[in-house]
């Protein structure tokens, strides 16, 4: 795409990384400052008219709202109003697959702070996207080129 790429894992605090490396799942209090920082990055890039890809485990609907709208999404369940602080236009690509496929991929990943044992907590926390969120669901059982093509098609068609 020629877009900037950000890996949300690079922005976790040392405390969050330590907690996860010890097999302790993050909670909302751990994640909200991280998501707000990611929102600020997305807002800055949007202000510069820079398209970006953010790889992020935005597991809950509220987390996706924070990415799009910032901290104000925490206090309000009201839709964002058009104007200066309008929500960012984000297409969420929900990568979906069987737990065993994801577990196998986690086992192969080396040097990452998230141990495979935390996969269950990720599934327990997951709130798959639903209308009216702007999202597509892509099967992880497809090949990487097929996954990328499906996401690209959704970006350019919508």
From TrEMBL:
GO terms for molecular function: ATP binding; gluconokinase activity. GO terms for biological process: carbohydrate metabolic process. Its EC number is 2.7.1.12. GO terms for cellular component: cytoplasm. Keywords: ATP-binding, Kinase, Nucleotide-binding, Transferase. InterPro entries: P-loop_NTPase, Therm_gnt_kin. It catalyses: D-gluconate + ATP = 6-phospho-D-gluconate + ADP + H(+). The keyword Heme does not apply. Pathway: Carbohydrate acid metabolism; D-gluconate degradation. CDD domains: GntK. Belongs to the gluconokinase GntK/GntV family. This is Gluconokinase.
């Amino acid at each position: 795409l020629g877009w900037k790429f950000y890996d949300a894992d690079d922005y976790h605090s040392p405390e969050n990384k330590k907690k996860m490396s010890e097999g302790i799942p993050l909670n909302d209090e751990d994640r909200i400052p991280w998501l707000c920082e990611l929102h600020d990055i997305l807002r800055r890039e949007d202000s510069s008219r820079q398209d970006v890809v953010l790889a992020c485990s935005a597991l809950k609907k509220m987390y996706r709202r924070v990415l799009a709208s910032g901290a104000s999404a925490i206090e309000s369940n009201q839709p964002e109003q058009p104007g200066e602080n309008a929500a960012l236009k984000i297409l969420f690509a929900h990568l979906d697959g069987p737990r065993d496929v994801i577990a196998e991929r986690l086992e192969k990943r080396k040097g990452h702070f998230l141990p495979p044992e935390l996969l269950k907590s990720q599934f327990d926390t997951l709130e798959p996207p639903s209308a009216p969120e702007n999202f597509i669901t892509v099967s992880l059982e497809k090949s990487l080129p097929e996954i990328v093509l499906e996401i690209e098609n959704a970006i350019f068609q919508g």
